[in-house]
Amino acid sequence: MTYAVLVTETAFELISAQARHIAVERQAPLNAARWLGRVLDAAEALAEMPRRCALAEESNYVEYEVRRLLVDGCLLLFTIDDASRTVWVIGFRGGGQLQRSEALPEAPPEAPPEAPPEAPPEAPPVVDRGM
Fold this sequence. Notes:
Number of domains: 1
């Protein structure tokens, strides 16, 4: 069973901040790009069997299940919405950072509304040329 994987704005900002830190503070922009690619690939891999990942410590502080995926010494924090078949990446932290439940949403994100089905294109008018 495949899940859609979505990243919240907060999680994306945290991941981006880490990539900027690697690029600017460590003066390693190529490493930052490679690291970011690995993080995004790992997030996409959550589309298959997301429950293979362990519960995160943050699960003890919120009313929903938070799981973690270790990527290059950092943790992607995510929750699973079975009703909408969606994995939400909701947080990120370096492996050495303490858990911070206040950085997580109070409630799990909700699935985006489904787009209405597109209407089929109209057929061009038939012109009778009397042939």
